[in-house]
Amino acid sequence: MLKNSKPISISKLITKISHQRIENSRNVLFLNLLVYALIAGAELTIGAADHSTALIADGQNNLTGIVSVIALIVGLTFSKRPSDDFHLEGHWQFESLAVFLAGLGMFLVGLVCVWEGITRTLAFFDGNYTAPLKGQAAYMAAISGISMLTLCWFNHFIAQKTQSSSLAASARDFLSDALTSTGTMLAIIGASWFGIHWIDPVAALLLGCFIIWNGCQILSTSAEKLSNGFSPQLRSEIIEKILTVSGVLDVMFVDGRYSGNNIIIEAEITLANDDSLAKSYRICKSIEQILQASLPVLYCCIQVKPAPKSASSHPQAIVWKPL
């Protein structure tokens, strides 16, 4: 029975950078978890004391945010594990799986909000509705909305800086929670201070639709990575970079797939017919280094195809045209 005696030649630098990115993301997620716990606990407590069903519902929504953050932390923790006999490339895909689950959770929460909005709207037209008895809960909803919006910006900023899909998903989650809290605040003010009771169900319906849309964006991005989807635009950029390497006559095929946030490149290139094995290897390593300079490429799997002798003797005649 064959057994791999040597690991795949994965870039140690990219692996080190990825581990640092994951550690930074986990630290931010622990901060998110703390804020979620404090806000959810305060909303449930104040909502029960003030008899505010809207604020209690918002607190329950933030409890689902705690579950999403825990899923992301667990996924990032598993993704840091080193490669083994079953996962030669490492466990990076656990991050994409965690992001997918977080998006799925957000999608389901949106469906619940839409359902509650529809049922409460129908109840309003039937003359049966439950309005908050006190308006003090609006202040707690405002504090929640401001806190969530601040963390949304912070997570988005760090996600852009580190290219972390986990923090990008968390930023979207915070944005939906911030809008939900804002809608809760407006519903409480409208129902308790101005007697406009229809704001509550309509706000729940609209916010539910937004949460569903947000969740679908996360699901779409993570599903593309999990299903080995790859951007055609990025593929074209990679082909252009490969063609800049000295000795490469043509690029026959390029594809890529994600392992977490890292990329694995597969390509077939054409080299001169008389190039030695050692020279061909150096060209392949040059391609890998050029790609790793601008992309988080774990490693490249490059197949070399010898050019016809006429093409090898006249490399200047080779002109690559994108399809």
Automatic annotation (TrEMBL):
Alphabetically ordered keywords of this record: Membrane, Transmembrane, Transmembrane helix, Transport
Residue ranges annotated for the Cation efflux protein transmembrane domain, each copy included: 29-226
Protein topology in the membrane: Multi-pass membrane protein
SUPFAM superfamilies given in the database record: Cation efflux protein cytoplasmic domain-like, Cation efflux protein transmembrane domain-like
The keyword ATP-binding belongs to this UniProt entry's keyword annotation: no
InterPro entries reported in the protein's UniProt record: Cation_efflux (IPR002524), Cation_efflux_CTD (IPR027470), Cation_efflux_CTD_sf (IPR036837), Cation_efflux_TM (IPR058533), Cation_efflux_TMD_sf (IPR027469), CDF_Transporter (IPR050291)
Domain Cation efflux protein cytoplasmic: 233-306
Regions crossing the membrane: 28-49, 61-78, 98-118, 138-158, 178-196
Pfam families: Cation_efflux, ZT_dimer
Location of this chain's protein in the cell: Membrane
The family this protein is said to belong to: Belongs to the cation diffusion facilitator (CDF) transporter (TC 2.A.4) family.
UniProt protein name: Cation diffusion facilitator family transporter
Source species: Lacticaseibacillus chiayiensis
